[in-house]
Amino acid sequence: MIIRPATPADAPAMADLLNRIIAIGGTTAHQHPKPAERVLVDYIDGPGTLTCMVAELDGRVVGFQSVGRNPQLSAQTGDIGTFVEPGLQAKGTGAQLFAATLAAARAAGLRELNATIRADNVPGLAYYGRIGFVDYAHDPDWALDDGRVVGRVSRRCVL
C-alpha cells in the first residue's frame, strides 16, 4: 500500500469511494453523494483544507484521510475525516493513513485533532479509539435527514 498526499487528479476516485460509502450508509454522517468537484474543494485543496492523504493499492485509491479547519473549533484544532474502502476497514489502512496525517498535522502547527463520529458507527468509533482519540462531547439527539436519531460523539487527539 502506498500512502501519499492527495492531488487534484485523485478527486474522481475519492468521490467514487466516498459515494459508495454514503450509498451503503451507517458509517458516515454524509448523506448525499458528492461530485468530484466538491471532493476537491472539501478534502484536497479548498481554503479550509490543511492536509489530505490517500491510500493507494494496486494503483487505485482505497482510502483517504483529510484534516481541515472547522470554524466551531480553535485555530489549533483540525477536523479529521477518514474514508476506507468497504471490506478493507480494520486491516491497517486507517492506521497507515493516520501515521502520515499525524506528521502533516504537526507540521501544520496543529495541537489537536477532532473527530465527530455517528454514535451508531461502531467501526468508526473503534478506529478512532485505537489510534488515541478520546471522547469529549456527545450529541445524542443528532438526526439524519430522514429523521432517524443516531447521535454523534466528538473525540479529540492531543498531538
Q: Biggest sheet, in brief?
A: 7 strands, mixed
Spans of at least 5 consecutive residues whose pLDDT stays below 50 are none
What percent of the residues sit in helical stretches (DSSP H or I)? 25-40%
What is the residue-averaged pLDDT? Answer: 91
Number of helices: 4
Q: What string gives the helices and strands in order?
A: EHHEEEHEHEE
Number of strands: 7
- Overall body shape: globular
- Structural class by sheet pairing and helices: alpha+beta
Distance between the termini: 25 Å
What is the radius of gyration computed over CA atoms, rounded to a whole number of angstroms?
15 Å
**Beta-strand percentage?**
25-35%
Q: Strands across the major sheet, in which order?
A: 1-2-3-4-5-7-6
Task: Please specify the SSE layout and strand pairing.
Blueprint: E1 2-5, H1 11-24, H2 36-45, E2 49-57, E3 60-68, E4 77-84, H3 93-107, E5 112-118, H4 122-130, E6 134-139, E7 152-158
Parallel strand pairs: 4-5
Antiparallel strand pairs: 1-2, 2-3, 3-4, 5-7, 6-7
Helix pairs in contact: 1-2
Based on the model shown, name its key terms.
159 residues; alpha+beta; seven-stranded mixed beta sheet; 4 helices; 30% helix
